[in-house]
Design a protein that fits this description.
The protein is mostly helical. It has helices spanning about 5-10, 15-30, 35-75, 75-110, 125-145, 150-155, 160-175, 180-205, 205-220, 230-255, 260-265, 265-275, 285-295, 295-310, 315-330, 335-350, 360-370, 385-410, 415-425. InterPro entries: Na-dicarboxylate_symporter, Na:dicarbo_symporter_sf.
């Protein structure tokens, strides 16, 4: 039964509008305090504190929701089937995203009319060292790193995949002991509910955090950063919008969901993802909203956190487009063989770099050299990476939400009546 909203709730300004207001105020402050180091530091610190508040509840929500969801599912065969479908879906959609990025790069050629020598280079030394460290680990190290040797260390070090791995086994173990495990399930459900309540409190300061983050970005970069790289940014955003509306729209349509309905459900999270450029900032609310939308707890708690590591469609588009942009800017002709190599390398490196700080840019560093593009050239687009990151974060968020719906529908584990009630509540 849908809860009726109180008069106060009906007349209060929605969180989405407040976040948009914070966005506008942040842009104004960024223009006013352009290149003002004191103001930039203050805004960065406020924004960092907001992101920290969100990160504080992310892993507890993943741990409690996923463990309880798996325990309620109680079927290892079903879990294996869901896991298999999820990985296949992620790989297919990521590959499609890379292909669309490459098609957009070839058709619109955003780097063809750019004089590389007139672009301002940025310092990418930190990315270079991160790429080298990540590359030294190799595929086996990445796979082995999924298994936690110390679960509490995994929590402390924000190792999402390790937490997911432990939660799955803990949930299966809880289900295996039968009625005795019910007390654990009840406890975890209660903790998850508390964490969602804390998330709602934290989101009340989102307009301030969003304003500070966007303000710091504008104050650092200024409007001039859009100059010679404006066409690249435009093509990147147009391609990402195409992916959401056409590709994800078609996939969702097959499973009986309108993409605009999903966008309506996620409007606040989309604004938050765009302004913070942080997928983690939206994870707690995505899990909560997809459950209310009708996705089963076990599916959403498994698919969404896993997708934030393996299903980064926005990042895949950016990486393909960025690699072609740099090749065109340097006047390097890429044959079909070169582009097939790029496709295969991106498919591998985008998974191998999962969880690495600045992963999208690090993947580009690890990829461009395979097609003969100088690594140093990426210094010229590093300056606008944050602007594109805002868009690709939105694609990642919408993509992972859509994935949870698709997997749940394919398992016939989607509560249609619950979905109808929730959508009706949004219209009240």
């Amino acid at each position: 039964m849908v809860e009726k909203k109180t008069k106060k709730e009906k007349h209060s300004v929605g969180l989405g509008w407040r976040i948009l207001f914070g966005l506008v105020v942040g842009i104004i402050l960024g223009v006013i305090f352009y290149q003002n180091k004191t103001a930039i530091t203050a805004m960065q610190n406020i924004g960092t504190m907001f992101i920290g508040l969100i990160q504080m509840v992310v892993l507890p929500i993943v741990l409690t929701s996923l463990t309880a969801g798996i325990a309620k599912m109680g079927d290892m065969h079903k879990l294996g089937r869901i896991g298999g479908k999820t990985i296949i879906y992620f790989e297919l959609l990521s590959t499609v995203a890379i292909l669309i990025g490459m098609i957009a790069g070839n058709v619109f050629q955003p780097g063809a009319h750019v004089d590389i020598h007139n672009l301002q280079a940025s310092n990418i030394s930190s990315y270079l060292s991160t790429a080298k460290a990540a590359g030294d680990h190799g595929v086996w190290s990445t796979v082995m790193d999924i298994i936690p040797t110390n679960f509490f260390g995994s929590l402390a070090n924000d190792k999402m995949l390790q937490v997911i791995f432990f939660s799955v086994f803990f949930g299966l173990g809880t289900a295996a002991i039968g009625p005795k495990g019910q007390i654990i399930i009840d406890f975890l459900d209660a903790v998850a509910e508390v964490m969602f309540k804390v998330t709602n409190w934290v989101m009340q300061v989102a307009p301030i955090g969003v304003g500070a983050l966007i303000g710091a970005t504008v104050a650092q970069m200024g409007v001039s950063s859009l100059g010679s790289l404006g066409f690249f940014i435009f093509i990147a955003y147009a391609t990402m919008i195409f992916f959401i509306l056409v590709v994800l729209g078609a996939v969702l349509h097959i499973f009986g969901v309108n993409v605009f309905t999903l966008i309506k459900v996620l409007k606040e999270e989309i604004i938050l993802a765009f302004t913070t450029a942080s997928s983690e900032a939206t994870l707690p609310r995505i899990v909560s909203k997809m459950e209310k939308f009708g996705v089963s707890q076990g599916v959403v708690s498994f698919v969404v956190p896993t997708g934030y590591t393996f299903n980064l469609d926005g990042s895949a588009i950016y990486q393909a487009l960025g690699a072609l942009f740099m090749a065109q800017a340097y006047g390097i002709h890429l044959t079909i063989e070169h582009q097939l190599t790029l496709l295969v390398v991106l498919m591998i490196t985008s998974k191998g770099m999962a969880g690495v700080p600045g992963a999208s840019f690090v993947v580009l560093l690890a990829t461009v050299s395979t097609i003969g593009v100088p690594v140093q050239g990426l210094a010229f687009i590093a300056g606008i990476d944050r602007l594109v990151d805002m868009g690709r974060t939105v694609v990642n968020v919408v993509g992972n939400s859509a994935a949870s719906i698709v997997i749940s529908k394919s398992e016939k584990d989607f509560d249609e009546e619950k979905s109808i009630r929730y959508l009706a509540s949004l219209n009240d």
